[in-house]
């Protein structure tokens, strides 16, 4: 249910977003649309682009960050209060408290309590583990069994136990970091009245996500009509990081990948050059029955090496994200 438009922000992605909003609003100016962006700065830019530069009304155009979308979904039911959001300063104080209390893993850091920047650096590491949704018990088991190579297993074990202690405090006191809301909101995606109202959910401008944001994006894009406007120019080294992210996490999800409204031609899989498809171009996906379309994706590749690489990445995605046994993949 995901279509993707790629290109540089200006003018390709901006023009494509304006065109998509205009197309959806042409027959019904009050048709609801959600535009999800990675930052408040980009949210302001999108509103300025549509309202000021294009002179379009923003009635029923909901421009939200990932965090704001998660809050919207969590507040819909009102069954129980949201967890208390905490900041980095609180987390540093919490780590100091846990080490002083002697929780498992504290011994490795107790003698360094007076070191300048210790708690800031320690929280930055624990935060990375939280955002990656690392299960400390699973990694500890891997370390104990010798399946995870590390130069300092004792230090790694201490860090993982401290990470586990932070998670336990979060559960007991109902604490959360802003990024934790994405994981909590995933359970509300299917039944969300807000998302069910949207004619289209447009994701605009991200080229990197943490694991919680990526899982949240996949849940929404898999359940509702969605379009991703992804900043990428394959021929440019400036977009190398974005291209790696796109090929690893996005390409296998899309039923259609097109370029923005730019005159630049591209090389197809057969080696011929043609104009890039736009998001509204008819494709094989439109001819499929809905149950089949929901389970299939089309991946474009240039040459045998790209075909093998795309197949290998899809196999890894099925194993890591969906728990498939490698022997079940044909």
Features:
330 residues; Rossmann fold; 2 domains; 6-stranded parallel beta sheet; globular
Explain what you see.
This protein has 330 residues and is α/β, with parallel strands linked by helices. It folds into two domains: 2-76 and 183-299, Rossmann fold, CATH 3.40.50; 84-173. Helix content is 52%, strand content 12%. The chain contains 15 helices and ten strands. It has helices spanning 9-25, 40-53, 66-77, 88-101, 107-110, 118-131, 136-144, 153-173, 180-185, 193-197, 211-223, 240-250, 284-287, 290-295, 303-322; strands at 2-7, 33-37, 61-65, 84-85, 175-176, 200-204, 226-231, 256-259, 266-267, 273-274. It has a six-stranded parallel β-sheet, sandwiched between helices. Strands 4-5 form a two-stranded parallel sheet.
Q: What is the averaged pLDDT score?
A: 83
The CATH topology of the largest domain comes to Rossmann fold
Which structural category fits the helices and strands?
Answer: alpha/beta
| Secondary-structure element pattern, one letter each | EHEHEHEHHHHHEHHEHEHEEEHHH
Which overall shape is indicated by the principal axes computed on the Cα atoms? globular
Number-wise, the strands total: 10
**Can you say what the CATH homologous superfamily of the largest domain is?**
P-loop containing nucleotide triphosphate hydrolases
């Amino acid at each position: 249910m995901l279509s993707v438009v790629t290109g540089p922000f200006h003018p390709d992605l901006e023009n494509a977003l304006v065109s998509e909003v205009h197309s959806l609003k042409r027959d019904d100016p009050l048709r609801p649309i959600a535009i999800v962006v990675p930052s408040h700065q980009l949210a302001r830019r999108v509103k300025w682009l549509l309202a000021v530069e294009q002179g379009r009304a923003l009635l029923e155009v909901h421009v939200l960050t990932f965090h704001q979308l998660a809050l919207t979904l969590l507040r819909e039911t009102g069954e129980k209060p949201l967890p208390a959001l905490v900041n980095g300063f609180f987390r540093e104080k919490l780590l100091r408290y846990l080490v002083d209390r002697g929780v498992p893993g504290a011994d490795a850091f107790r003698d360094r309590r007076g070191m300048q920047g210790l708690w800031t650096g320690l929280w930055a590491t624990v935060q990375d583990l939280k955002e990656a949704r690392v299960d400390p018990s699973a990694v500890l088991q891997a370390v104990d069994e010798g399946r995870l190579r590390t130069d300092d297993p004792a230090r790694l074990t201490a860090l993982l136990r401290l990470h586990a202690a932070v998670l336990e405090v979060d559960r007991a006191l109902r604490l959360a970091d802003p990024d934790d809301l994405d994981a909590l909101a995933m359970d509300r995606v299917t039944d969300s009245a807000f998302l069910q109202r949207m004619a289209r959910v447009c994701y605009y401008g991200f080229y990197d996500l943490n694991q919680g944001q990526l899982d949240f994006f996949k849940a929404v894009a898999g359940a509702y009509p969605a379009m991703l406007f992804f900043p990428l120019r394959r021929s440019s080294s400036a977009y190398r990081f974005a291209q790696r992210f796109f090929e690893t996490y996005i390409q296998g999800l899309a039923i259609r990948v097109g370029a923005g409204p730019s005159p630049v031609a591209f090389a197809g899989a057969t080696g011929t050059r043609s104009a890039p498809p736009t998001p509204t171009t008819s494709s094989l996906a439109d001819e499929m029955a809905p149950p089949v379309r929901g389970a299939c994706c089309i991946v474009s590749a240039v040459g045998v090496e790209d075909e093998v690489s795309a197949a290998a990445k899809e196999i890894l995605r099925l194993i890591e994200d969906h728990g498939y046994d490698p022997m079940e993949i044909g």
